[in-house]
Amino acid sequence: MKRSIIPAAVLILGILFPKEISAASRVPFEHNKKPFGESLDSISSQINDLGPYFSYAFTIVFILMFLYGVIMLGYSIITKTGEKMKKSASVMLWVPIAFFLVRVGAVYVFTLDSLSDIFLADDIINFLRFTGYYLAIGMVLVSLCLTMYFKFVHHPEFGRWSKRLRFLAVAVIVLSTIMPVVFKGI
């Protein structure tokens, strides 16, 4: 480890486990009387006790990021700065999405077992397959609309986009059909 990481690690361990560190520093050569399981339980209970504080800090960080986006949006509207408006709108869009995904992800990670992993992977593959099929249907419908515009207006871009969308719809259908077989290993 680098020399700058070691003091930071000791500081973090000292904050998280002050009783164990102070006991170890007072009597370095005396063996701990408690069995390993009990000391592990006490350490895990200390970490679990810090959970609400981490959750609160996590929420505050995301709230501050969203407020920063709001303030920057107001600044960009006043000064008519397009770059700041784009960045602030992006922050205001992605902060709630990231907050939701992290919260749901944490609940999912702590309620996971090996059997639900298999079912979840199968559900995700089926979801992506059917989403691909519906996406291909939408692409074909948009392609037909663009072909109709091409017939009325005779603009070559509509014809090109129509052909591209049809090609991509076929590609999405092929991928949606083949990829579940590849992922499942059948």
What general form does the structure show? flat
The end-to-end distance, rounded to whole angstroms, is: 45 Å
Structural class label: mainly alpha
Average pLDDT, rounded to a whole number, is 81
Helices and strands, in order, run as HHHHHHH
Kindly state the number of beta strands. Answer: 0
Largest sheet, strands/sense/barrel: none
Describe the structure.
87% of the residues lie in helices and 0% in strands. With 186 residues, it is mainly α. The longest helix is centred in the last third of the chain and has 40 residues, at 114-153. It contains seven helices and no strands. The mean pLDDT is 81. The protein has helices spanning 5-16, 18-26, 36-49, 51-79, 82-110, 114-153, 156-184. The two termini are 45 Å apart.
List the helices and strands and how they pair.
Elements (H helix, E strand, L loop, with lengths): L4 H12 L1 H9 L9 H14 L1 H29 L2 H29 L3 H40 L2 H29 L2
Helix pairs in contact: 1-2, 4-5, 6-7
Task: Write a compact overview of the structure shown.
By secondary structure, this protein is mainly alpha-helical. It has helices at 5-16, 18-26, 36-49, 51-79, 82-110, 114-153, 156-184. It has 7 helices and no strands.
